[in-house]
Amino acid sequence: MTKIKEIIQASIQVKEQLLGNEALLNSITAVVDIITEAFTKGHRVYFCGNGGSAADAQHLAAEFSGRFYIDRKALPAEALHCNTSYLTAVGNDYSYDVIYARLLDGIGQEGDVLVGLSTSGNSKNIIKAFEVAREKGITTVGLTGMTGGLMQSLSDYLLNVPSTDTPRIQESHILIGHIICQLVEEKYFGRTA
């Protein structure tokens, strides 16, 4: 029982640090505006991650393409890892490091937004995707851990959770993602739940 309480308390402490970080909160607000503007102008939002962060990327994409609180039309958002035939072919024929970059190069357009989730900020396949995004005029949003890793310099907007503990970072990524989804939905559709 004590260990369970310690884990819950650790999660709460990270979220309290988020709550008190005005710069991070301002960055979240800016990302809400950027994503809303992208949708308003007919652009798309792409998500990518690895392992648990891939699951989180898929989760957040579904909040836009499905719905969050409001019964409304679908928004054009997708996770880049959902086509296993593509992933295994490119991973086998080229390299796992280019799975996101290659797909983004094929489908991404100037004005789109790419959200990359990496607790370390050092995932090679996300870094390469961010490099392609920069070349194509696609806005990049990095959800990382404390330092931001190598993604820090490639992120137009860095949302770096103040922790080095992977599970606590991922829990906060979902919190931040849900905040963004809710506020974009409200702003884009002009109504609340």
Automatic annotation (TrEMBL):
Its EC number is 5.3.1.28. The reaction produces a racemic mixture of D-glycero-alpha-D-manno-heptose 7-phosphate and D-glycero-beta-D-manno-heptose 7-phosphate. Catalyzes the isomerization of sedoheptulose 7-phosphate in D-glycero-D-manno-heptose 7-phosphate. Binds 1 zinc ion per subunit. This is Phosphoheptose isomerase. Residues 35-193 form the SIS domain. It catalyses: 2 D-sedoheptulose 7-phosphate = D-glycero-alpha-D-manno-heptose 7-phosphate + D-glycero-beta-D-manno-heptose 7-phosphate. It comes from Terrimonas rubra. The gene is gmhA. Its main location: cytoplasm. It is found in: Cytoplasm. Zn(2+) binds at H59, E63, Q170, H178. Substrate binds at N50, G51, G52, E63, N92, D93, S118, T119, S120, S123, Q170. Keywords: Carbohydrate metabolism, Cytoplasm, Isomerase, Metal-binding, Zinc. InterPro entries: GmhA/DiaA, Phosphoheptose_Isoase, SIS_dom, SIS_dom_sf, SIS_GmhA/DiaA_subfam. It holds the Pfam family SIS_2. PROSITE patterns: SIS. It comes from the Bacteria. The keyword Metal-binding applies. PANTHER family: DNAA INITIATOR-ASSOCIATING PROTEIN DIAA, SEDOHEPTULOSE 7-PHOSPHATE ISOMERASE / DNAA INITIATOR-ASSOCIATING FACTOR FOR REPLICATION INITIATION. Its cofactor is Zn(2+). Pathway: Carbohydrate biosynthesis; D-glycero-D-manno-heptose 7-phosphate biosynthesis; D-glycero-alpha-D-manno-heptose 7-phosphate and D-glycero-beta-D-manno-heptose 7-phosphate from sedoheptulose 7-phosphate: step 1/1. The lineage of its organism: Bacteria, Pseudomonadati, Bacteroidota, Chitinophagia, Chitinophagales. Belongs to the SIS family. GmhA subfamily.
